[in-house]
Design a protein that fits this description.
Distance between the termini: 76 Å
Order of helices and strands: EEEEEEEEEEEEEEEEEEEEEEEEE
Number of strands: 25
Largest sheet: 7 strands, antiparallel
Structural class: mainly beta
Length: 330
């Protein structure tokens, strides 16, 4: 098929929506992966499939685009023996499907925006772990991740990874510097449904991406990317949490929330009202914040007893203050 050139600049958003339709026939599993063509990126740019799965690209909108993986166009790669493709999507041809028959990496792109619009399909003979769902919910500044597997093979563990993408332009999510924030043990090899839950706490206001790094007992791994972005909003009111742990020795964490930008002063006093330490005295942006307090950080070396921490928050002409008590036990 010959590519047609566009007469005007193209703005196409590619939004990846993966719908796994699990078909159980004996020991075989297959799926349909739907990719919606919508703007200038494949999101996520990396997907895992089984050999035998069908990948379908569907055009959203009226703008022309291509999906190319022929091994000849710069940047395209496919496994040896795999059938190449070069498809045009437009008003008269809004859908293209491809059945993956050989395992390996398929690096495809849009020839109209080849520096930006790139994607990878990684095909396994059989995925070591098949996820039926992967979702996120938020409670204030806590994110709860839940996922379910319909089958696991040689599964050692999941690493939970996160990145703050606030104000970040994402051209290729696969190269983003994700941070590992926790892990959960896998269930080895099983054909039963297994559920997992992970809580990511004390996040600041912003927009986040999550993914799972599934690792087998041979240290091989694959990624499962959460489709939607997770947003932590701005608190509704000014508040100060009880320090944790309490009692503590020697370090404890103090969390607080401010609903708008303002001047914040966080201080610690002894029972006689003497200032022990000023942890914060600066302008802060609206959101969720935390500070650690150490009873022996070099400048202070406190003895066991009751201490008070107070926070002053000023926004405009209004000054608010909250005081709480904590206990140091050495």
């Amino acid at each position: 098929m010959e590519l047609r050139k566009c007469k005007s600049p193209i703005k196409i958003i590619l939004f990846l929506s993966v719908l796994m339709l699990i078909l159980n026939a004996g020991n075989s599993r297959s799926a349909i992966v739907n990719i919606t063509v919508a703007d200038l990126s494949f999101d996520p740019s990396y997907v895992n499939v089984n050999v035998g799965d069908t990948v379908i690209w569907r055009l959203k909108g009226s703008q022309i685009n291509s999906v190319t993986c022929d091994g000849n166009y710069p940047g395209t790669v496919l496994p040896e023996g795999a059938i190449p493709w070069n498809a045009i999507l437009d008003n008269s041809n809004t859908e293209f499907s491809y059945i993956v028959k050989i395992s390996g990496d398929y690096n495809y792109l849009s020839v109209f925006n080849s520096e930006i619009m790139k994607g990878t399909i990684h095909a396994y003979t059989l995925l070591p772990v098949e996820l039926s769902d992967f979702v996120a919910t938020t409670i204030k500044n806590e994110v709860i991740l839940d996922w379910t597997t319909v089958g696991e093979t040689n599964n050692d563990r999941f690493e939970i990874q996160r990145i703050n993408i606030t104000d970040m332009k994402i051209d290729d999510p696969s190269i983003l510097p994700f941070l590992t924030v926790g892990h959960l043990s896998g269930n080895g090899t099983t054909n039963n449904l297994k559920t997992y839950k992970f809580r990511d706490r004390d996040l600041q206001t912003g927009v986040y991406m999550y993914r799972l790094k599934q690792i087998d007992f041979n240290s091989n791994y694959i990624y499962h990317v959460l489709d939607e972005r997770v947003e932590i909003g701005v608190p509704a009111k000014f508040s100060l949490s009880q320090n944790y742990p309490n009692p503590f020795n020697p370090v404890t964490k103090i969390n607080f929330e401010i609903p708008e930008n303002g001047q914040v002063k966080l201080s610690v006093y002894d029972v006689n009202g003497k200032l022990v330490n000023t942890l914060i005295n600066e302008e802060l942006s609206a959101g969720y914040h935390s500070r650690n307090f150490s009873a022996n950080n070099g400048t202070v070396n406190l003895s066991s007893g009751i201490y008070f921490y107070t926070i002053d928050f000023q926004s405009g002409n209004e000054l608010q203050r909250i005081v709480k008590r904590m206990m140091l036990v050495k």
